[in-house]
Design brief:
By secondary structure, the chain is of the alpha/beta class. It has two domains: 180 residues, Rossmann fold; 91 residues, Pantoate-beta-alanine ligase, C-terminal domain (Pantoate--beta-alanine Ligase, Chain: A,domain 2), CATH 3.30.1300.10. It is built from eleven helices and nine strands. The strands form two sheets. Strands 1-4-3-2-5-6 form a six-stranded parallel beta sheet, sandwiched between helices. A three-stranded antiparallel beta sheet has the order 7-8-9. The relative contact order is 0.13. The site of adenosine monophosphate has 17 residues, from helix 3 and strand 5.
Length: 290
């Protein structure tokens, strides 16, 4: 039964084939959702697919490791690729189609267009990964125009990315609804990520301590601890847990992502730090009590 579902799941790699499937569904009056991913799928990705099914009749999952969002010293070459296993998981989660283009399909010779979103791209990951959000915005624009879904689902795990995409879709009048899905965590609190596979057993055993430190910082903020002090304590705890370079640990406005010196409105606490060679990111919402 499970194997049959995976076998019968359609996979297309060309835009022509993707469009003909989507157009046929549209002709039948069906609603379509797109879940963009880079593969190496885990429960976090599958939660997006299940959520998409509540909004739409047919769910398309794109699997594409997008080279333009990786910096020259980042992990593009070693990023995990496991299409067969991913197809099985996608089928089990109930999606209707996998779109798995090649790099040449997405960026044919002569490709020279880039989407730049200012505002929410500034700071946080945008400050330490130059060009990253241009790569994300460009590939997401292409995926949205290739598929033309009614709704596209993105995870709050990459909260800054979600805000960049929301802004871009508004600014460019792309006719799609953007939905943000909550972070799925391991039982010990570590946010699920394809990059967790890089962690050694020892690193994995302490990786959740970033989340624990962020969580304690949100409690301190609720207790009236000044922002700078709560962040300093969290930074010290993350370092003591064995993390190396902390790219950022920041309280930001939940919508526009402006830095906050005082905790006086709905906010999010963001962190990116290295554990060995692996860069982990996480964020948690923190809202002032009534
Ligand atoms: P990626 O394959 O890492 O590009 O992620 C594809 C989508 O899955 C993005 O919208 C991510 O934000 C989302 N995602 C990744 N990990 C999680 C998670 N732990 N919980 C919820 N969504 C996630």
């Amino acid at each position: 039964m499970a194997m049959n579902a995976a076998r019968s799941l359609d996979t297309v790699s060309s835009v022509v084939d993707l469009r003909s499937r989507v157009q046929a569904w549209r002709a039948d009056g069906l609603r379509i959702a797109l879940v963009p991913t880079m593969g190496a799928l885990h429960e976090g990705h599958l939660s997006l697919i299940r959520r998409a099914k509540t909004f739409a009749d047919k769910v398309v999952v794109s699997i594409f490791v997008n080279p333009t969002q990786f910096g020259p010293t980042e992990d593009f070459a070693k990023y995990p690729r496991q299409l067969d296993e991913d197809r099985f998981r996608v089928a089990m989660a109930g999606a209707a189609l996998v779109f798995a283009p090649t790099v040449e399909d997405m960026y044919p010779p002569g490709f020279c267009t880039t989407i730049t979103v200012e505002g929410p791209s500034h700071g946080l990951c945008g400050a330490v990964r130059p060009g990253h959000f241009q790569g994300v915005a460009t590939v997401v624009t292409k995926l949205l125009l290739q598929c033309l879904p009614d709704v596209a689902i993105f995870g709050e795990k990459d909260y800054q990315q979600l805000q960049v995409i929301r802004r871009m879709v508004r600014d460019l009048d792309i006719p799609v609804e953007i939905d943000g899905a909550p972070i799925v965590r391991e039982v010990d609190g570590l946010a699920m990520s394809s990059r967790n596979a890089y962690l050694s057993d020892k690193e994995r055993s302490v990786a959740n301590l970033m989340y624990k430190a962020l969580h304690r910082a949100t409690l301190a903020l609720h207790d009236g601890t000044p922002v700078a002090q709560a962040l300093d304590t969290a930074r010290a705890e993350i370092t003591a847990a064995g993390f190396g370079k902390i790219d950022y640990l920041d309280l930001r406005d939940a919508d526009g992502l402006a830095p906050l010196e005082a905790f006086d409105r709905p906010a999010r606490l963001f962190c990116a730090a290295f554990l060995g060679k692996t860069r982990l990111i996480d964020n948690i919402p923190v809202e002032p009590r009534e």
